[in-house]
Write a structure and sequence with these properties.
heterodimer, A: two-stranded antiparallel ribbon, B: alpha/beta, 9 helices, 10 strands, globular, binds iron/sulfur cluster
Chain lengths: ~100, ~300
């Protein structure tokens, strides 16, 4: 079953989200080492009474993701996190106004 | 000020607790509790074999672990229960790692989903949870499992904390904010700020311009309802739709979100008779997980 988490926000300047699919994520940690901003970490998600480690955006960066991620040029969809994930578990929504 | 008895803490909301009179914990096989320590409110729910027995809702103090102890202690009051009688306790919420008597902590997203499924049944698909400091949109399946979720904790304006600030500013008791916000003939332009500090400044400016209190509160509540609806639309609003958390009682928020989304939320169950309190959805879910985890530990 899919468990999709949207990290980020919509504000006056647009929509900015990193989206992680916990079902696809195999906890390999590749994206965490690939991220130049140290914006990602493993977090336990409670699924079917078990804890599954899943990649997540750190709490700090969730609130300023527009600034954290913009050097990776999310408009072009070739960010290090997405490219490093062999499971296609990461995607993004990036719509600056 | 001429009247010394005048209410000054407009933000202060009512705390409450209840024990079900016709239930006896001594006959229960499994006694569990869920304790949800939020940024504004702490909620405790005690369950006997997966049914609500006692609960409490109180303000979170400056210390999470004290708040957890107080909330559960208050729910246990007059029952004769002691902490040793519990088979399993789950902590959740913002302060979940600081629930000292808990056997384990579970994220509030999973607990809210489970709680909403328990309160309203298997038809619930979309949950809007408005807490003290964040707003969450959660999609769930018929078993109350999380399918997707989106959390916005960037600005506190549309949350419990923001409402407290605006209630104080306008001198409207917090429980009347929603009702007062509906006393306008026409919806004003929403305030433009989504940050609680700026929204407050904007509200002060509107009062100076001669806007009535109702109009200012309507502009504020409307702005927050629009933001919440945006969040829901991002994950997609599938029926049935419900609202949990402290702001589920704010009729001004509820009516506006319903209007914007074009969907009615499921009505709130009869709290006094059932204990099915949308404010306690997280604690209810935590108490249910506590039972499931205890049963699982027996099998192992
Ligand atoms: S690279 Fe992909 S699969 Fe590996 S931890 Fe990150 S999201 Fe999960
Ligand atoms: S876009 Fe860049 S900064 Fe943002 S999470 Fe991915 S790798 Fe890290």
């Amino acid at each position: 079953m899919k468990v999709i988490t949207y990290y980020g926000y919509t504000d006056g300047s647009g929509e900015y989200y990193i989206v992680i699919d916990a079902e696809k994520c195999n906890s390999c940690g590749e994206c965490i080492s690939a991220c130049p901003q140290e914006a990602l970490q493993m977090e336990d998600m409670f699924i079917d009474l078990e804890d599954k480690p899943v990649a997540a955006v750190t709490e700090d960066h969730r609130k300023k993701i527009r600034y954290t991620c913009s050097p990776c040029k999310p408009e072009e969809n070739s960010m290090p996190c997405i490219k490093s994930c062999k499971k296609n578990a990461i995607s993004c929504i990036w719509k600056p106004l | 000020m001429t009247n010394n008895n005048e209410k000054t803490e407009y933000w202060r909301w009512l705390e409450y607790k209840k024990v079900m009179p016709n239930k006896d914990w001594k006959k229960a096989k499994i006694i569990t509790a869920g304790v949800d320590v939020g940024s504004v409110g702490s909620k405790a729910v005690i369950m006997l074999d997966g049914e609500i027995y006692a609960w409490s809702v109180m303000r979170t103090g400056s210390n999470s672990s004290d708040s957890a102890k107080k909330a559960l202690g208050w729910a246990m009051e007059d029952t004769g229960l002691t902490l040793e009688d519990f088979h399993y306790i789950v902590g959740t919420g913002y302060g979940r790692v600081n629930v000292p008597m808990a056997n384990r902590a579970i994220t509030e997203i999973a607990c809210h989903a489970k709680g909403a499924n328990y309160i309203w049944g298997p038809t619930v698909r979309t949950v809007l949870d408005v807490g003290g400091q964040d707003v969450k949109a959660i999609k769930i399946d018929e078993n109350g499992k999380v399918v997707s979720f989106l959390m916005n904790d960037k600005c506190a304006a549309g949350t419990g904390r923001g409402m407290e600030v605006i209630a104080d500013l306008l001198k409207i008791p917090i429980e009347d904010v929603g009702k007062e916000s509906l006393r306008v003939n026409e919806e004003p332009e929403p305030v433009s700020s989504t940050c609680v500090v700026f929204a407050k400044t904007e509200a002060v400016g509107l009062l100076r311009k001669g806007w009535t209190k109702e109009k200012v509160i309507a502009a504020y509540v409307r702005a927050m309802a629009i933001r919440m609806s945006d969040l829901i639309e991002k994950v997609g609003c599938e029926k049935d739709f419900v609202i949990t958390g402290g702001q589920s009682k704010n009729i001004g928020i509820v009516k506006r979100v319903e209007n914007i989304l074009g969907v009615k939320r499921l009505p709130v169950p009869n709290l006094k008779e059932t204990g099915l309190d949308p404010v306690s959805a997280g604690a209810i879910g935590a108490a249910l997980f506590a039972k499931a985890l205890y049963e699982k530990s027996l099998k192992q």
